[in-house]
């Protein structure tokens, strides 16, 4: 990994894909396009515009976004099978910069109960999916679903195989929101140290908020080598949500004494983006929500820390 990448935190926004999985948060194609335009204005590096194989409507929305967005990479999710990867490839084809994000489960319980596959079959499917995705774009991301409950030796084996196959980004997801920061940071550190050619890829993290730790886990990953965070506006997402983009970005920006990287997010666009997503999805932002809540910088009495004043100016 070169020094430029070490200093840069890539923001991968999945509001339009994972965020839409919030109950009742379905969006029309036109609404997705409005949000995608605003995410581009915000300075998001990667917009995960949907899951092309999920429906013709999803594929159509991804393609429309790919035709419009110029300054962000447009990405489609795909399971590690031919139908999904080819649907994703066709959907991102018009993009100036396109990515296919393919994944397969790697935890023992998921491999046995959900996939009904042996470990060797999972590795084979992962490699095949990455190679197929490379027919459409050289920007391929691989995720090990339920990495939090996967065996470390097997994770290393899968990641080694997909890096050799050509994956450029390796994502480590806490799919079930089960981890805690100390353990999650250590898992990322070990993977970076143990996986061959780990310095040739971008390490990423995708955390769910079931224990209220998605942002903390994401930041722990960054402190241990991750240089991409997958997140959503307002922390939108299935169940308890995803890591909140605005909280991750402002934590890294505010605590430059701790973090050695920064994002290219235009922080003046955070609040407008939050309001747009809230309006379109119908999910209100709680008044005391960090960074974007109506009361985030309000207080009645007590000490007013200086960093809040600085953050308020940034926004």
Sequence-ordered SSE layout with sheet pairings:
Layout: H1 3-7, E1 10-13, H2 29-42, E2 46-50, H3 56-68, E3 73-79, H4 82-92, E4 98-105, H5 108-115, H6 119-133, E5 140-145, H7 152-165, E6 169-174, H8 181-194, E7 202-207, H9 214-223, E8 228-231, H10 245-254, H11 270-281, H12 306-314
Parallel strand pairs: 1-2, 1-8, 2-3, 3-4, 4-5, 5-6, 6-7, 7-8
Helix pairs in contact: 2-3, 2-11, 3-4, 6-7, 8-9, 9-10
Report on this structure.
The protein is an alpha/beta fold and 315 residues long. Helix content is 43%, strand content 15%. The protein has helices spanning 3-7, 29-42, 56-68, 82-92, 108-115, 119-133, 152-165, 181-194, 214-223, 245-254, 270-281, 306-314; strands at 10-13, 46-50, 73-79, 98-105, 140-145, 169-174, 202-207, 228-231. An eight-stranded parallel β-barrel has the order 1-2-3-4-5-6-7-8, surrounded by eight helices. Strand 3, helix 4 (82-92) and strand 4 (98-105) form a beta-alpha-beta unit. The longest helix has 15 residues, at 119-133. It is globular, with a radius of gyration of 19 Å. The chain starts with a helix and ends with a helix.
